[in-house]
Amino acid sequence: MKVIAAFLLAVLGGNPNPTANDLKTILGSVGAEADEDMIKLLLDQVEGKDPTELIASGREKLASVPSGGGAAVAAVAAAPASGGGGGGAAPAEEAPKKEEKVEESDDDMGFSLFD
What Gene3D superfamilies does this protein's entry cite (predicted)? Predict the structure, then answer.
């Protein structure tokens, strides 16, 4: 990820075709080690391609990836049924929801947004 971030920073900085040395310089400026193999792999993969188009195509691919809690809920719901023995699955009980009261504090050390 850090190599990709360095590449995108170089592009945002106005360098449409960053080199391996450009990426090493960016990574070195924040004290990160530059992995030669990863830099070479990235530059080979993006050679001749527009970074904006790469990001757009990546977003399209991510749109089909489930990102909600549905998979975890399905796995938890299926677990009791696979436990073996003993009749049907019992309905899941909902945990009681706790309502937390947020108390306002006057410990703002004398600073106020509207004073």
Answer: 1.10.10.1410
